[in-house]
Amino acid sequence: MDSDTLLARITDYASRPDPYPLYAELREAGPVARQGDGSYLIGTYHDIAALLHDPRMSADPRTRGETTHKPPFLRLDDPEHHRLRTLAMRPFGPPHSPGRVDAMRGEISHITEELIVALRDREQFDIVDDFAYPLPITVICRLMGVPREDEPLFQAWTDVIVASADIGPEEDTTQRDKAGIQARQEMGGYLVNLAEQRRGQPGDDMLSAFINEPDPALRLTVEELAENAILLFIAGHETTVNLIANGVLTLLRRPDQLDRLRREPGLLPQAVEELLRYEPPVHMRERIPLADIDVAGTTIPEGSSVILVLASGSRDPKQFHEPDRFDPGRPDNEHFGFGSGIHLCYGAPVARLEAQAALGALIPHLGTARLVQDPPPYRQNAMLRGPRHLPIHL
Predict the structure, then answer these.
(1) What secondary structure does DSSP assign to 214-237, as a single string?
(2) For the CA atoms of 289, 240, 23, 376, what is the dihedral angle to 10 degrees?
(3) Range(s) of the domain holding residue 131
(4) Which site among 186, 278, 311, 314 is 20 to 30 Å from 382 CA-CA?
(5) Domain containing 100 — which CATH number?
(6) pLDDT tens per residue across span 222-233
């Protein structure tokens, strides 16, 4: 089939249960596949890696005049990106030393056990709604200092924000974009107001750390505080829901590997890395060249939309042995599950801890479980791919 329709076929909801044959087609089409809408798809491991580390590739939508609003640092370039990312990472603790995330390890285990206990007497439940969603939202709300009674507010906001960030050849995204802006404003306003309540009266939470930064030169503006608190919330929550749900789905489809992890629990950290490669929570990222760029003999013009298909790169047979095989013991697993380069997902340490805790708690109970529906219903989003529901029967 024509490679210039790959983006349309990948983002078609019918492809959501299994986009991997299309990714193989993308790799076979060559390192660069120009699309009918003028965008360029990149699906090979080494070319994706090179572009993620190329300073000529911008993440900032303002380079194409798409918006005048300053985006969060995930969509900024250095030096702005470096300054804001450094500030945002400070509450996690100094590099190479125990920080707030490590201190949450026991809390994450406790929240996980509470959820398991609540499900123990049920014959059927939804992994997404009853486990994969409440775990990370509870963890990130506690990290941020959000009162427990306000946690439900964030589900509606994040659903709209994530939908507005999707990638696809849609003709008109006006309504989707407008809804995303409104949700960001409401969520940002809530988080800024909550932070202001902690000014001069800090608690042991990240909003307190942001608002009470002692160095005036390092303090976040109100706009920066809002945008980056939202980003931390999304990065520390949305990807984890997909990672846990994709992990349970993968293991229930492979009872031999589920049994292996039950017998060898020490493999769990490696298994999470393999899940990040095999069924990643993030499938694509967009970049914009600041100059004409040559990729494997193809010139990509300045200002073009370049879509790096990370999930395709993580299944590139030139990088991974038997890439379509799920191997919890896979060595040297340099995947793109959280991206790479300066924009490596900064919610990754939290997501890894949560996934290890979640799967570690679930695996002993999955031996008698079966999927109620396979494939399950998926979220609309092609970029952040995962089941919308994952009902299982015990």
Answers:
(1) S-GGGPPPHHHHHHHHHHHHHHTT
(2) -140
(3) 3-393
(4) 186
(5) 1.10.630.10
(6) 888 888 788 878
